[in-house]
Amino acid sequence: MTCILQIGPLTERCNQRLAAEHEVLRLWDADPETLLQQHAERIEIMVTSGRFGCTAALIERLPRLRAIVSFGVGYDAIDVTAARARGIPVSNTPDVLNDCVADLAFGMLIDCARQISRADRFVRSGQWPAGGLPLATRVSGKRLGIVGMGRIGETVAKRSSGFDMQVRYHNRRPVEGSPYGYEASLVELARWSDFLVLTCPGGESTRHLINAEVLDALGKGGMLINVSRGSVVDENALIDALVKGHLGGAALDVYATEPNVPQVLFDLSNVVLLPHIGSATEETRLAMEELLFANLHAFLERAEVLTAV
Ligand code: 8YV
């Protein structure tokens, strides 16, 4: 039996299936140092997730490591450079979550503009009899800016056609054949946009891409929707813009240091706060699990992962 190191818990179904098929060492369930001292030499495969990631130091501790199989599309928390240096393939779970992440991004956009969560809190707390809510912001016909026109960005753009929105995007380079307008300057895209949706990958290359200047360009009439990674946004600059009323609103599914959400955001009525649930539906999590197992089996059978990062 291949010895697998599992970094953190996935769904219960996934944990059980892994343990039934393989010898699994559960790093989160043990004293990591003791576990590694006893078993590091035997570990051949690592199973992790976008959330648990994997450091270069851990890769270095595992002399027989042959593959890293990850749950989730984002791999910014995995030291892919260290894995590559040892010829260790890393797989993720792309595509199967595009629809659910895009659905949520659109839901967040509408929530932020139309104050759905706020209105729900308003009714539940018995405030309705005393008066109404302030008027909200229209969604249909507005300008949608997308940062990162990858597979998820494209799926968000497709959703917008039902709302008669204009779409423009910013990316490292224009996407060939894309029907949407490319904007080389992120600041200009923010200035143009009513809603700026972040669907780019996390990691060093996009760290604090959304800074004070971009937020200022998005301005009072603009709203920021983030379903990518918290690291893409300078969170202090975002808080500053929101507190000073320089930004119309924000809907966030991801944060700089999850699961810590800055307390100051709790009191802002124009902010929608979600606990990183972009892919969290029964259907999509099952599809992600199946792709994780397909990668694992492909590697065990023919030393090749299916969806390498
Ligand atoms: C997952 C995600 O919740 O796929 C991603 O990159 O952020 C989410 O789908 C996460 O990766 C699981 O840990």
Report what the structure shows:
- The protein is α/β, with parallel strands linked by helices and 309 residues long.
- The chain has eleven helices and twelve strands.
- The strands form two sheets. Strands 8-7-6-9-10-11-12 form a seven-stranded parallel sheet, with helices on both faces. It has a five-stranded parallel sheet with strand order 2-1-3-4-5.
- α5 (98-114) packs across α7 (151-159) and α8 (186-192) packs parallel to α9.
- The radius of gyration is 21 Å and the shape is elongated.
- The model has no long low-confidence stretch (mean pLDDT 97).
- 2-keto-D-gluconic acid (8YV) binds at residues 49-51, 71-74, 97, 276, 278-279.
Helix coverage percent = 25-40%
Instruction: Quickly give the structural class.
Output: alpha/beta
In order across it, which strands form the biggest sheet? 8-7-6-9-10-11-12
Beta-strand content estimate: 15-25%
Largest sheet: 7 strands, parallel
First and last CA, distance:
26 Å
Global morphology: elongated
Alpha carbon gyration radius: 21 Å
Number of strands: 12
Q: Summarize the helix and strand pattern as letters.
A: EHEHEHEHEHHEHEEHEHEHEEH
